[in-house]
Amino acid sequence: MNLLENIDTTRLPKHLAIIMDGNGRWAKQQGFLRAFGHESGTKSVKVIIEATAKLGIECLTLYAFSTENWNRPKLEVETLMKVLINSLKKELNTLQKNNIKLNAIGNLEKLPKTAQKELLDVIEKTKNNTQMTLTLALSYGSREELVSAVKNICSKVKNNIISIDNIDDSIINEHLYTQNLPEVDLLIRTSGEHRISNFLLWQIAYAELYFTDILWPDFKEQDLYEAIISYQKRERRFGKTSEQIK
User: Fold this and answer.
1) What residues does substrate bind to (predicted)?
2) Looking at the annotation, which residues are catalytic?
């Protein structure tokens, strides 16, 4: 069955975010080390990036490495950083071919210098692409992002740059890592976990949530299409009644 035919391309989420979970468990099921799962997960990343771009979704944000992930065993963190660097090198052609602009959010200064250099290089080379914006959340934590925003706003209030009476949603948005991105419409999490894990807490206030038991290395185009079809079947009211939005 071709699920793509059941997708209404006029009602796509403008901003899709994905928590790519299950690489380690997938590797364990195959009898391999967790590192093999992370490497295999990059294949799904490529597949989903290309499928999302072809659908016409404007923004895709992938939770690639959280602030909490720094607490994982040293060898696994080193492997994840190597996988990141190698993926950026390999996938530049994919981004260029599909006219995709790369963006990154998080405490990027904590990344190894080699990873920072490769990341900034790909961001620079794709900055004029217009088909889709791909954002990698790296060394990212939403609470850390919100604390940073509050500090910056407080500093501006203290220096009379912002009036405290003028602080509203838009002011907060302007001080988030995602200031140039729209709010998330659809959040997907793989691997059967039903939690947000400190990801885009402000930005998903009205997002539709989709959870699947599929482990990330097994998540492919048809699984993405199923999530979007589920999204399109839902009534998004944003606090209004059904009658008001008809």
Assistant:
1) 22-26, 34, 38, 66-68, 70, 72, 189, 195-197
2) 21, 69
